[in-house]
């Protein structure tokens, strides 16, 4: 079992948010989410420049079992998408907290402030354990 990294924040929808620098937040889905989905075969991501809001869908992850929406944990503008997932969506299964990241979002203001209301690793792990 992969431990929940404590260097990022989490949503109750199983996305993670990692502050990259002052205004950029990298987003992906958690190990719990990829495990529940099973083998990921397709990823649909937003366009760079798209405005996103917290809790709004920013893409889809399709597996052999189902299709799940991915939600933005923070408000801002999509500044990068992980193009490598187009050819290798299974990267999310292999490395959900590293090479399997989905998008980067540039927030207005401080990225740490934008993620402050999200769950910390302990609270997210407690949520997963309770499900």
Describe what this molecule looks like in 3D.
Pfam families: GCV_H. Its cofactor is (R)-lipoate. By secondary structure, this protein is α+β, with helices and mostly antiparallel strands. It has one domain: RNA polymerase II/Efflux pump adaptor protein, barrel-sandwich hybrid domain (OB fold (Dihydrolipoamide Acetyltransferase, E2P)), CATH 2.40.50. Helices cover 20% and strands 32% of the residues. The two termini are 16 Å apart. The relative contact order is 0.26. The model has no long low-confidence stretch (mean pLDDT 96).
Quick gist of this model?
The chain is an alpha+beta fold.
Instruction: Determine the fraction of residues in helical runs and give it as a percent range.
Output: 10-25%
Unreliable stretches (pLDDT < 50, length at least 5) are: none
Shape: globular
How many discrete domains? 1
What amount of the residues lies in strands? 25-35%
Q: What Rg, in angstroms, do the CA atoms define?
A: 13 Å
CATH fold field value: OB fold (Dihydrolipoamide Acetyltransferase, E2P)
Distinct helical segment count:
4
Number-wise, the strands total 9
How does the helix and strand content classify structurally? alpha+beta
Would you tell me the overall average pLDDT? Answer: 96
Write the CATH homologous superfamily: RNA polymerase II/Efflux pump adaptor protein, barrel-sandwich hybrid domain
Strand arrangement within the widest β-sheet reads 1-2-3-9-8-5
The first-to-last residue Cα distance is: 16 Å
The CATH architecture comes to Beta Barrel
CATH class: Mainly Beta
Function: The glycine cleavage system catalyzes the degradation of glycine. The H protein shuttles the methylamine group of glycine from the P protein to the T protein.
Cofactor: (R)-lipoate
Subunit structure: The glycine cleavage system is composed of four proteins: P, T, L and H.
Keywords: Lipoyl
């Amino acid at each position: 079992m992969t431990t929940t990294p404590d260097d990022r924040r989490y949503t109750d929808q199983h996305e993670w948010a990692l502050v990259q620098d002052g205004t950029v937040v990298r987003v992906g889905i958690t190990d719990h989410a990829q495990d529940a989905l099973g083998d990921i075969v397709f990823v649909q991501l937003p366009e760079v420049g798209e405005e996103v809001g917290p809790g709004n869908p920013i893409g889809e992850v399709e597996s052999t079992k189902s299709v799940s929406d991915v939600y933005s944990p923070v408000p801002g503008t999509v500044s990068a998408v992980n193009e490598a997932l187009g050819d290798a969506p299974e990267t999310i299964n292999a490395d959900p907290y590293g090479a399997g990241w989905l998008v980067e979002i540039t927030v207005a203001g401080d990225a740490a402030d934008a993620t402050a209301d999200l769950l910390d690793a302990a609270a997210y792990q407690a949520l997963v354990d309770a499900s």
